[in-house]
Design a protein that fits this description.
homodimer, alpha/beta, Aldehyde Dehydrogenase, Chain A, domain 1, Aldehyde Dehydrogenase, Chain A, domain 2, seven-stranded mixed β-sheet, five-stranded parallel β-sheet, 19% strand, globular
Chain lengths: 552, 552
């Protein structure tokens, strides 16, 4: 059976291996809902509804009680109860399951992992509803980000790890010639051995997109994985664990190689489990404070963190001013700025924005941007589709508190969802500040909060942005410029800070988006993240090579 | 010029890339002294003598004073004075040199690094004398280990890092089809960006073999490197730095990409420099106490350590009893046990050692092993050749102190070197202890100190050895057995502990030896080392990938 799964998925894996080498566009899982059937949305909704007011079934060891109290940002109470298991019981069971998984080898493990992804793909619409009603994303955003795009990140992780593992030969014959003696001959066997039990700490905004790289990278390299979802966003990862366990079981492996660890926000277990001596890998996405805590404290483990930073935009000059505004407006609005990739600080100089025909004065740019934002969001159905809802009440409070950080140039408004009257929906707040006011705009303000930062010159914009990204971290830098020297300066800054750079996005690509198999999400080089999703370093230290040799 | 170096060394690099994938025998640098010319030894000696009683020339910035007080374990005072430079000046210069090195790209950097290795190869005999008169190795051991074999480890590191870097395409065209619109098209550029300034902390026994992997892995991935030799073993790494700087200069790069940092044992700088905020990678080989300190404290850097452990031998049964004894005797004697790979605890059960025709009782095995050791070392020229001299007086004192740890079954004797009457030469001390006496044999006793550990059964030997290796770490486990079930048990232990396993070495391969391009030296999986020399994880986290994208 395991071998069959490898044979079944070999062609896809081969394509994935080509894709990570070419890094062009490749999207193996359909990104159009239509591809999932005419009734896919309704079927997904029914499947989701069936979980509500019910017990989520997971046959895990060490169940102590049941828990979970998710409330949809759209106002629904999910009332799903999950088994809560003792971490020690899950770790013991995971360790017991490990040796057979090691011995299965990279091919079999990769086959099983791709099978999981393929089954998760079939659940994409069910997942979309689950993610919508936990993270607040609109259904279409949730479908894409938590369905095919998350699965693609998972497949990318499998491909990276598989490539690294397969670069180690399984056996070798070492034959050293000698003078006047027959050669020395040794047969050698090389085995991929995992680091140990891995822990994935899920986040509240992109529970699958952010968890799948670490989850699949650890699992395919032989590490059992405990997944601890954010207590307010459990269902998407519970679905994932259920599919993974079922796949393992059918493939003849112990399902305890993957387990769900549920906790409550008033009794969190992440610190205790992350520092457990048997936890050897930790993957985390979320706020910088806890990310740093993990890096400092989970010393027994390899810790991979994706935290957050201050993403900067430099507006210098453009060939397409309307396109620039439109692109920026969508970037600021997408999922209400609840993305680690949302731009926060938009630097513009007092010289204004040079376009092909004229120079737009700074204050006019500010008016234009605000107007474009308002116009875009005045279309309520579109606004609801793009904004989604605010995941956490803390973010709502942050919008309110941020009003004092500068001069409001575009007010944040609450919108009413016709179907979900209690949904927390809020348009972005846009402020203007002076470049000197770094305390206001120079630290992460998670949510729909943007700043136009007024600098003297584009050079000042670049140099201040560099300092902030170096100190606070950033996942991306967007530069709008038609000037060669500015491009060169921006490129040098991007190399020095270790931040992904985009120029002149005015069409349908947004700075927030990172395409699987093509964009490296984060670099690991600045404080926003200590790892990249996904590069070789992200996978290579999850396993060791252990050799055995004997005379041939 | 840089491009020419890449072209020049492309064939060798291509062979190296094949070798790391096949992991059979491959030795690109000649391992026979004859290949270096008829007068190679004498020429090497003259070159070495020219350094004595003189100032070592290095054109480095920030020279504060001159220092260095190496004394040969063979009794010569070297009286070489090196420039001592302020770490900050070297770091500033290194950082200034970095951008051009980044922009040169992987091909050029690899060409320059392989050129360095090729020039170091030409200095192999000079290096052999330098290593002999700092580490105490005999000339032939020093030649092999510090010359071709160290260069091979360096080339292996270049090949691993080069492969990882080249798996990242330099550019990509991302083209996403859209309905009713032309495709979205982005051009993407991916740049390999180093972590930052790297520090290599040299050791006192294998200064080049242990330093080259980290040095070349860091340098080829774009990191400038400061090399801080052990204060008693400076010359080998000073020679290395001189060759590296000259190569860089001739290739058109700033020589400050590589610098020598000299300190004194009474004013060590390693702690301060290793925790300097601008040091982003640390490679260390040496004692476990300082290795652990680095792992705990150099938090701003990626730290790679090769420390030490308790290497175990399990003697159960054999088809070749004389071969077993002979092999073990040489393993215990080689460079007087001053190798991190020297076996320390030889477990034998009270059931004795089963051979083809009989069972050798335990006490007879102990007598046989002692006799074989004495016989082997009674041939003084051979003994001097194999043992070399004791690098540090501390090791001499440790031999003395270890006598009380068990019952001496083979005394350690001082030998007199006809040419160097003051040389510290000492044969191995062999003790017998009970398996329960873990405090005696269960921690590392660096130097020519071995234990025969008496256990009840081979199963007990294996289980106690597993516990010790798990807790103290080990670089290797040698098992002598003709029993299938024992092989299986040993294999499972090796996977659980993450230790390299060898079976039945009775001919010309010794447990101490790790062959470049074939054997993985250490695994990173147990406390003996947190990294492997050399695997993907050893190179992959030395660099980041930074991308830039713009509409096509």
């Amino acid at each position: 059976m395991p071998h069959l799964l490898f044979e079944k998925h070999k062609p896809l894996l081969a394509q994935a291996l080509v894709a990570i080498r070419k890094r062009g566009y490749w999207s193996p899982y359909a990104e159009s809902i239509k591809a999932y059937g005419d009734d896919a949305i309704e079927e997904g909704r029914s499947a989701f509804e069936a979980y509500r007011d019910a017990q989520f079934y997971l046959d895990q060891p060490g169940v102590i009680e049941r828990g979970g109290s998710e409330i949809s940002p759209y106002g629904l109470s999910l009332n799903i109860s999950y088994p809560k298991c003792g971490p020690d019981a899950l770790i013991v069971a995971a360790k017991a399951a490990m040796m057979a998984w090691i011995k299965a080898g990279p091919d079999t493990r990769a086959g099983v992992c791709v099978e999981m992804l393929s089954r998760l793909n079939a659940h994409s619409l069910e997942m979309a509803h689950a993610v919508m009603h936990t993270t607040g994303q609109s259904l279409s955003t949730a479908f894409l980000a938590a369905g095919p795009q998350a699965q693609e990140r998972g497949l990318e992780a499998v491909a990276y790890a598989y490539r690294e593992m397969k670069q180690v030969p399984e056996t070798a014959l070492w034959e050293k010639p000698r003078e006047r003696h027959p050669p020395l001959r040794l047969e050698k066997i090389y085995t991929i051995v995992p680091r140990g039990v891995a822990l994935v700490l899920g986040c509240s905004t992109f529970p699958t997109w952010n968890a799948y790289p670490g989850f699949f990278a650890s699992l395919v390299t032989g590490n059992p994985v405990l997944i601890k979802p954010h207590p307010s966003v459990i269902l998407p990862l519970a679905l994932t664990v259920a599919v993974a366990r079922q796949t393992l079981k059918e493939a003849g492996f112990d399902p305890n190689l993957v387990a769900l660890l549920v906790d409550d926000s008033d009794a969190p277990v992440a610190r205790e489990v992350a520092t457990h001596p048997d936890i050897r890998v930790v993957d985390y996405t979320g706020g910088p404070v806890f990310g740093l805590w993990l890096e400092e404290n989970a010393r027994q483990a390899k810790v991979f963190t994706e935290k957050a930073g201050v993403n900067c935009v430099i507006v210098d000059s453009t060939d397409d001013y309307p396109g620039l505004l439109k692109n920026l407006v969508l970037s600021l609005s997408l999922y209400s700025g609840q993305m680690c990739t949302t731009p926060q600080a938009i630097f513009v100089s007092r010289d204004g924005v040079k376009t092909k025909s004229e120079t737009i004065p700074l204050d006019q740019f500010e008016r234009d941007l605000s107007r474009a934002l308002n116009t875009f969001l005045d279309d309520t159905p579109r606004a609801l589709e793009i904004l989604g809802a605010i995941q956490s009440p803390t973010t709502l409070a942050r919008i309110e508190a941020s009003r004092e950080l500068g001069e409001v140039i575009c007010e944040s408004r609450a919108l009413r969802h016709p179907q979900f009257p209690e949904a927390r929906i809020q348009t972005p707040l846009l402020l203007k500040v002076d470049v000197a006011d770094i305390p206001a705009y120079g630290e992460e303000r998670f949510g729909p909060i943007g700043f136009v930062v007024e600098a003297e010159t584009t050079l000042e914009s670049l140099s201040v942005a560099e300092r902030i990204m170096h100190e606070q971290g950033a996942l991306n830098l967007l530069v709008h410029s038609t000037s060669g020297p500015i491009w060169q300066l921006a490129e040098e800054i991007s190399l020095r800070v270790g931040v992904a750079l985009s120029f002149n996005l005015t069409d349908g690509v947004y700075i927030n988006q990172a395409a699987s198999f093509s964009d490296y999400h984060a670099t690991g080089a600045n404080p926003a993240a200590n790892a990249c999703l996904i590069d070789s370093a992200f996978v290579a230290s999850r396993f060791f090579v252990v050799q055995s040799r004997h005379p041939a």
